[in-house]
Amino acid sequence: MPRAGGIASMMRLPVQDNASGASPFDSFQVADVGDVNLNLYNLPKACEDIRNHFSGIVQTGCIPLALGGDHTMTYPILQAIRDKHGPVGLVHVDAHADTNDTMLGEKIAHGTPFRRAMEEGCLDGHRVIQIGLRGSNYNITDYDWGREQGFRVVLGHECWHKSLTPLMSEVREMMGDRPVYITFDIDALDPAYAPGTGTPEIAGLTPAQGLEIIRGCRGMNIVGGDLVEVSPPYDPFGTTALTGANLLFEMLCVLPECKYLR
Question: Does residue 259 fall inside a structural domain?
Answer without folding.
Answer: no
